[in-house]
Amino acid sequence: MRGVKRVALVLIVLIVALAILAFVLENQQDVALAFLGWSTPQLPVSVFVTLALIVGMLVGPLLGLLAQRKRRQKPVV
């Protein structure tokens, strides 16, 4: 049973890696973003999407921790 789980995990990781590789290879068009007067150098679309994913993966749990902390600090009346 342990071997089956390990094989399934390896297959899932390979599928995710192939999906990421396909995404990066399909999104090689260079773009420049402009936001509130800031502009970026021209980079592939996949770079911006990957950076947005990483920022979201960092900000999401931090906001969850802040909300949980505020919930604990509220006195029950």
Mean pLDDT: 88
Based on helices, strands and strand pairing, what is the structural class? mainly alpha
Strand neighbour order, sheet with most strands: 1-4
Helix proportion of residues, in percent?
A: over 70%
- Spatial extent as radius of gyration: 20 Å
Question: N-to-C SSE series?
Answer: HEEEEH
The domain tally reads 1
Q: Low-confidence segments, ≥5 residues, pLDDT <50?
A: none
Question: Helices, strands, pairings?
Answer:
Elements: H1 2-26, E1 30-31, E2 34-35, E3 38-39, E4 43-44, H2 45-73
Antiparallel strand pairs: 1-4, 2-3
Walk me through this protein's architecture.
By secondary structure, this protein is mainly alpha-helical. It has one domain (2-73). Helix content is 70%, strand content 10%. It is built from two helices and four strands. It has helices at 2-26, 45-73; strands at residues 30-31, 34-35, 38-39, 43-44. The protein has a two-stranded antiparallel ribbon with strand order 1-4. The chain has a two-stranded antiparallel ribbon with strand order 2-3. Strand 2 and strand 3 form a beta hairpin. The radius of gyration is 20 Å and the shape is flat. The model has no long low-confidence stretch (mean pLDDT 88).
